């Protein structure tokens, strides 16, 4: 590759005596994208001011296509036509009255005719996407628009080498991406790009080669995927490791990235690799197993088919194939038993045998009942009415959807009885006794799958999710605690890329968000989970802490409520019962106050974040928020 500009032994000492550059040797090759890295004061800007002769070196030499810099007027005129410098602050570059006049100035100096100038001005401004600003006074432009005009004034003169000093400094994400896209198009047209930046992620993604400066000296130069692997160089220059490189290391060290793919440099490639990452093994919920067992028993009863493998869909859109352990028919009843596989999640019901008994009934439809080992609801406030078997709504729907194709158009319906032989014993290890569910376990699941939530896996995945959200220029991120709150976010038109499922690790995720520079977070979650944060509980898993009643009682006490009301709240079995008591007492208006109290508690831990909170009830409906107005259809991007 041809050397376009060569620097040999460059030294520059400012009049005050401080050495800005000290013996710099560097070649800029035709057609490359060279990024010069370094902290503030490393010498980047001083170096750039030498590239088109604005500064004359104290010592050393520079060559343009082999011709030594002479610093005479005719040479500098030719050089500055070929080497265009866009300064960090456009105010130091722009001086004309309007946008069109600014673009015109350099062209007239080059001897262009008036008609040619008009043609080039239109061509340049349309290329930048700011043709409509042509008659706008420079003083009325935003910083991002001024940066584009400064760039356009240089591009109009068709330079061979484009020099950019901190090109994205002070820009918002929209103008950053717009500016970089324009620069990338110029490089594709054959213009050589040299850019100075302290944004190492930017350099890693876009550079063909990097040069690292520190205290006016060149520490190293070469491909970014090689130079930026060197911790010694990064530490010496006070630079951080690029996040793409850090993410690549995480994937490689865990065996998820093939050796020849390391390190990943392109954003798109990274997300493709991440998409095929081997994640912890998903399991199935008791609801999915019950539905599969009911399907196996029904097909045996109605069709005489003894299935060796039963395929069942889940609300999460994932299909599982389960193997029956029991499948038999006698006395007009078919029985199918399948063991639950919780995947890599430490679940109390893992490997529990779930049995479905299916028989005909003399009226249409499907009746679902609980048998041995399935609990019965004895307290109000749960998803299932008092007196019913603790088979939640989603599992009931899964069973019906699995069986309905078998009885369409028929007058005979089916009765399904779900049993869990070990259910009563297993229930003692769950919250069912506290919740007022007696006699066995609950048949649960809103997504039909068990996602193995481990703290380490979440921390890793959150970092990557947030990086992707920021890369996609999303202004806000939504934390959802589970599937129901995720559906709330979807109803609010939140972009899918902005939704982060936190599970129980809300505290960890807020801390990481603060470190990553997330601008704003909306936390959507069930009141029974989020209320724990009022007590400073940031891991929301029930095995870590309960505290819902205590938090609500303390909140009411802080408002000066009566001991009678506080005692009533404290005697409830669940949050839904407590909500009913508050409403009956005319205290429903306390919920937004509680939401604000939770927000302030979280802010006390994570002061660097701007956040809001939305409470939902057990059905997923929003019941309180820290927003003045939040409803379904709320314009997320507004």
TrEMBL record:
Protein name in the entry: Cobalt-precorrin-5B C(1)-methyltransferase
GO molecular-function terms, A-Z: ATP binding; ATP hydrolysis activity; cobalt-precorrin-5B C1-methyltransferase activity; transmembrane transporter activity
Domain ABC transporter positions: 5-240
Catalyses which reaction(s): Co-precorrin-5B + S-adenosyl-L-methionine = Co-precorrin-6A + S-adenosyl-L-homocysteine
EC numbers on record: 2.1.1.195
GO BP of this protein: anaerobic cobalamin biosynthetic process; methylation
One Pfam family in the UniProt entry: ABC_tran
Alphabetized UniProt keyword annotations: ATP-binding, Cell membrane, Cobalamin biosynthesis, Membrane, Methyltransferase, Nucleotide-binding, S-adenosyl-L-methionine, Transferase, Translocase, Transport
Pathway: Cofactor biosynthesis; adenosylcobalamin biosynthesis; cob(II)yrinate a,c-diamide from sirohydrochlorin (anaerobic route): step 6/10
Source species of the chain: Carboxydothermus islandicus
Annotated GO CC locations: plasma membrane
Location in the cell: Cell membrane
Annotated family: Belongs to the ABC transporter superfamily.
SMART domains: AAA
InterPro entries per the UniProt record, alphabetical: AAA+_ATPase (IPR003593), ABC_transporter-like_ATP-bd (IPR003439), ABC_transporter-like_CS (IPR017871), ABC_transpr_CbiO/EcfA_su (IPR015856), CbiD (IPR002748), CbiD_sf (IPR036074), P-loop_NTPase (IPR027417)
Membrane topology: Peripheral membrane protein
């Amino acid at each position: 590759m041809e050397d376009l500009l060569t620097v040999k032994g460059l030294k520059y000492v400012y009049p005050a005596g401080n050495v800005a550059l000290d013996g710099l040797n560097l070649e800029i090759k035709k057609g490359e994208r060279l990024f010069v890295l370094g902290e503030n004061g490393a010498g980047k800007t001083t170096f750039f001011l030498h590239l088109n002769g604005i500064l004359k070196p104290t010592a050393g030499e520079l060559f343009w296509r082999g011709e030594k810099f002479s610093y005479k007027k005719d040479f500098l005129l030719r050089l500055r036509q070929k080497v265009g410098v866009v300064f960090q602050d456009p105010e130091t570059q722009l001086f004309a009255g309007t946008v069109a006049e600014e673009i015109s100035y350099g062209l007239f100096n080059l001897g262009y005719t008036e008609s040619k100038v008009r043609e080039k001005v239109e061509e340049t401004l349309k290329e930048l996407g700011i043709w409509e600003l042509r008659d706008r006074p420079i003083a009325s432009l935003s910083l991002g628009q001024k940066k584009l005009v400064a760039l356009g004034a240089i591009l109009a003169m068709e330079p061979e080498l484009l020099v950019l000093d901190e090109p994205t400094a002070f820009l918002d994400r929209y103008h950053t991406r717009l500016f970089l896209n324009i620069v990338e198009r110029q490089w594709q047209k054959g213009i050589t790009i040299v850019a100075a930046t302290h944004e190492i992620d930017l350099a890693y993604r876009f550079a063909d080669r990097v040069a690292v400066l520190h205290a006016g000296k060149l520490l190293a130069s070469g491909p970014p995927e090689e130079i930026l692997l060197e911790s010694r160089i990064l530490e010496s220059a006070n630079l951080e490791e690029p996040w793409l490189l850090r993410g690549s290391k995480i994937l490689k060290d865990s065996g998820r990235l093939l050796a020849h793919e390391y390190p990943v440099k392109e954003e798109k490639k990274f997300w493709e690799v991440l998409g095929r990452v081997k994640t912890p093994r998903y399991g199935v919920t008791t609801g999915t197993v019950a539905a599969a067992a009911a399907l196996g028993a029904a097909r045996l009863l109605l069709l005489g088919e003894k299935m060796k493998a039963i395929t069942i869909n889940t609300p999460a859109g994932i299909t599982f194939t389960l193997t029956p352990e029991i499948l038999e028919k006698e006395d007009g009843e078919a029985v199918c038993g399948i063991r639950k596989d919780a995947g890599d999640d430490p679940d109390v019901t893992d490997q529990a045998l779930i049995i479905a008994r299916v028989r005909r009934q003399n009226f249409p439809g499907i009746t679902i009942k609980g048998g041995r080992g399935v609990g019965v609801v004895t307290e109000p406030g749960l998803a299932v009415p008092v007196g019913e078997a603790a088979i939640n709504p989603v599992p009931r729907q899964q069973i019906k959807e699995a069986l309905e194709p078998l009885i369409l158009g028929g007058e005979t319906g089916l009765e399904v009885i779900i049993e869990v032989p070990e259910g009563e014993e297993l229930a003692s290890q769950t919250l069912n006794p506290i919740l007022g569910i007696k006699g066995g376990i609950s048949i649960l699941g809103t997504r039909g799958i068990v996602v193995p939530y481990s703290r380490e896996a979440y921390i890793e995945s959150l970092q990557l999710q947030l990086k992707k959200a920021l890369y996609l220029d999303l202004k806000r991120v939504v934390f959802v605690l589970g599937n129901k709150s995720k559906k709330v976010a979807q109803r609010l038109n939140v972009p899918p890329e902005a939704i982060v499922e936190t599970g129980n690790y809300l505290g960890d995720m807020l801390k990481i968000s603060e470190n990553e520079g997330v601008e704003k977070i909306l936390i959507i979650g069930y009141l029974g989970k989020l209320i724990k944060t009022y007590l400073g509980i940031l891991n929301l898993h029930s095995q870590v802490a309960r505290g819902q009643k205590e938090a609500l009682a303390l909140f009411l006490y802080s408002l000066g409520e009566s001991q009678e009301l506080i005692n009533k709240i404290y005697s409830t079995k669940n949050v839904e019962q407590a909500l009913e008591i508050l409403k009956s007492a005319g205290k429903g208006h306390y919920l937004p106050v509680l939401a604000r109290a939770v927000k302030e508690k979280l802010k006390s831990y994570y002061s660097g974040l701007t956040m809001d909170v939305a409470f939902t009830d057990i059905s997923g409906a929003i019941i309180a928020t820290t927003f003045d107005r939040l409803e379904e259809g709320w314009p997320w991007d507004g």
